[in-house]
Amino acid sequence: MFTQIRFSTLLSLLLLNSMVVVTLPGQRDYRSDPLLVLGDSLFLFEHYEAAHQTFLEVAEKLENSEEYAGAVYALNQAVMTCLEMGEIERCVSQLLSAEKLAHELPSKHPEKVRNETCKAMINMHQENLDSSEIQFHKAIASMEYCCPDEAELRGDIYFHLGFLNQKSGNQLQAEESLLKSINYYHGNNDNSVLKRVRAHAILGELYISRGETNLYAEQVHLARGILESGIEAPSRLYEEIMLDYGINFIHRDLFDSAFTILDMLFVRELNKSDPAFQTLGYYSALQGHCLVETKRDSADKYLRRALNNLSRVREANHRFLSYTRRQLGKHFSNVNDHDESARQFMMAFIHAAESTASEQSLVQQNLAELYLKTQEFDKALTHINEALEIVGFREQDETFLEVDFSQRNVDDFFDPLILKGEILRQKYHHDKEPENLQEALQTYQDIENIASFYRADIYSISTENVVSDHYHRSAEGALLCLEMLLSNDPRNEYLEIAFRFMERNRYAQLFESLDRTATGEVLGVPAEVLETEADLIAIIENLERQSNQSEEFSADSLSRTRNQYRSLQNVIRSTYPTYYQIRYDSMLTLDQVQALHNDGSQTLEYFWGDTTLSILTISADSASLRSIKRSTIERDLDRMLNWLITSYLPDSFQMNFDEFSETSYRLFQMLVEPSLNDNNNQLIISADGTLSFLPFEILITDENNDGFKNATYLIKEKEIQYAHSSNLLFKSRQLSPLTRPKLLALSYSDDKAKESGLDQFMELPYSATEVDAIRRSFKQARSTALKGDFATESAFRANIGNMDVVHLAVHGIGDPDYEYNSRLIFKSDKDSLDGQLFAHELYGLPHSLRLAVLSACETGVGKNYPGEGVFSIGRAFAVTGTPSLVMSLWEVPDNSTAKIIANFYGHLSEGHRISKALQLAKIEYLESHHLGLTLPFYWAALVPMGEMSPLVKPNNEIPTSILIVSILLVGLLILWKSKKIRSVVRSNYPFKSLSSLFLWEVLHWKK
Hints:
Elements: H1 10-14, H2 34-44, H3 48-64, H4 68-85, H5 88-102, H6 110-125, H7 129-146, H8 151-167, H9 171-184, H10 190-209, H11 213-227, H12 235-251, H13 255-270, H14 277-293, H15 299-311, H16 318-334, H17 338-352, H18 357-373, H19 377-390, H20 400-403, H21 410-431, H22 434-456, H23 464-488, H24 492-509, H25 516-522, H26 527-549, H27 556-575, H28 577-583, H29 590-595, E1 601-608, E2 612-618, E3 623-629, H30 631-646, H31 657-671, E4 682-686, H32 707-710, E5 719-722, H33 726-730, E6 742-747, H34 752-756, H35 765-777, E7 782-787, H36 793-799, E8 805-809, E9 811-813, E10 823-825, E11 836-838, E12 851-854, E13 863-865, E14 869-871, H37 873-879, E15 884-888, H38 894-909, H39 914-928, H40 936-939, E16 942-946, H41 960-977, H42 979-988, H43 994-1003
Parallel strand pairs: 1-4, 4-5, 6-7, 6-8, 8-12, 12-15
Antiparallel strand pairs: 1-2, 2-3, 9-10, 10-11, 13-14, 15-16
Helix pairs in contact: 2-3, 3-4, 4-5, 4-6, 5-6, 6-7, 6-8, 7-8, 8-9, 8-10, 9-10, 10-11, 11-12, 12-13, 13-14, 14-15, 14-16, 15-16, 16-17, 16-18, 17-18, 18-19, 18-21, 19-21, 21-22, 21-23, 22-23, 23-24, 25-26, 26-27, 27-28, 30-31, 35-38, 38-39
């Protein structure tokens, strides 16, 4: 929304002078002329008319004195100044003068490059985008032989090229160009620093247009940090950055902070001698928006002030007038003045007629929301259908999916369709007509189809986060609709659709992001096949990008490469079927998942919506869907999670056992009990939202209990495992056990840490004990142990590539606010590595792990995206192809974790499933410790995630060959003991010992 209401065009940010100091051999620095310095300063601080006159005067003076380089520079700057003032004819005239004088310069001169850049800028201003792009690339090419070391000039070109790409819709290329410009603006002079600020601001605009609010916030903070470092900045640039800062607060729903920033900008603008009423109108309207969102009566005052200031502008900005009227309509709806609200919306629509289709559609959506609130459903449907028609949505039109989406903003379709589904569901509640539910379901399926279209598009990465957010909102409505349909008509078809809606975001965000190489190596696909696959994909993506950019593109090469890729897929399908199923098969159906529950398991899949929690229960012979209000569990859930991570402290969120038991039992009754099948011993939890941080093992199944040690925990009745996604889990199930797995174990501390009494916060003394216990109890493994100073990041990277199992008893930090900040902490590394391995760094780390035991703190904690999952260290291992994980949900206690881990590996070596081994280890811990150490904090943090097949064959299993030889020897011994038989043997064989006889028989076996 806010990208459409900026108080100046993006172009006005971009037209910055290219102040590159160039001194050619034998010449003085033409930039040192006092008049040029004055012109540059006037330009920089936006006194364009004065700057323009100064540049023309100095150009004439320098031309007369035959200092042509300075004259050409001055004329080029005059061109840029005219562009700022929007005087294109004068731009063209002065550019021709600059080109004429440039003939007097050497062939390799930076001002000739600047000439080409100015020409490209004029073409861009005149909307000749193709010609402009060609000229920018020509300027870049000229620099290679002309002035390759002029970083700032190169930064200017990439800066302008970035805006051009953004203007033409090539967002990936725009992002790449802007990042390059920031890299080239590395000088410390004021001009270079201010250009870097502008580049950060424009890059932030690009990110917010894609809905990537985190990246937008990052760019805004970088820009603001530079401005606050003490550099003198133009007033307009400062206000632009501060406005971005305020809008960033709005996107984070911090409306009070945003209001404070906007109020400061309003006062600053009002105190100018000649205030810009349009700017004052923008600031007031955004202030009013903040008050509307917080439902304050004073919103009316600020919005009317905005209209007053906007009405004083000679050329009205209809889009912003429409926006302000819409905010007034929302305000009057909040205070239940529905007639005035409708009047404001209708006036907004009048202004929107002069604006974009998106703005017109938004007004119709606001009217639909108003009539939904007053339960005038037919009117609401009329307006929402009008909103969809305005943006070109046509139901049941096959060409729609091929044409219209690529030209539209994502919000244009998702927002009105989600609202239409809501209207139809509430209409059903009101009049109980089943056709309303059927139409609502069709609407949600339309959303599903649109989301699939965007995700399949090669450029869909730019809208991925926005699509996921919209799809999550629509999935909640779809699941509620399906639950109502099932209550009237229990069709399997509805359950199938429910499963698809629950899994789609997880499938798209996690399953499809699996690293091809890592997954392939785990499943035995040769490296050359994986390399060929990756090469063909890269070639196809590059050719498709070219086809979108050039009308002269030949489709032959693209067609041939696609055919080669299809042929390779056929080979992979027949030769490596498991890898093919994971990489290329479509989502599993509910029937397929049910068929894979033939081992006595049961899945509880949760969907965490904005207001409801939906639960899909799946077993071999049945499936069901139910929902509960989030409000019914949130208080208990939040209290339980807070208590779990602090229960070892005496004064933090403390609950006695009775309080814990009652809370835990209530959660069990709401989350598990209605779905539980007593015949299923294995329980698979596919959690979502806040539930992702709850260990279901601690839920109490009976209200009559006696203390933490003997409580009737769910783990005592069920073998529990977790799954990021049912598709991911069931497409990689039943892996074969390993015979001699290679294990890498790292402990943050060594054996001396405990004895030396080092700082316990930094050291993990029991981590060394943990690693030693693993080596003793897991005898099948070929172990490599790195302890203390040897447990470095570089050692981990060097050894991980050929391991089957990794055990990390180091420090871990899970960041719930920033998805890329979760990390593992190793010992300091002398090889210049900082010892911090961030989750995203694992994506490029090749390995073929079968199991990762992340015995560090918070390895299952990270940024939580409902409907997608938790972006944690554990998830990073899963994304890179590790099928089985054990990870932690809080700061694990060192001592108790070491004891549980030792027993866990002991049970693994007996051939148990991974989840069963952890279940047994936890139960043994509870049985063997006194009451003070049986709080769930001490034993419940580690949870098993993913495929849980036995890792190894039982260590007591005798190999068949040894068994046969042993039986043969015993039999021969018995025979030899018989005197009668022994005499017969001696009469037939010339041997006096049993060993000689056995050796002769072996050598003559085939005879």
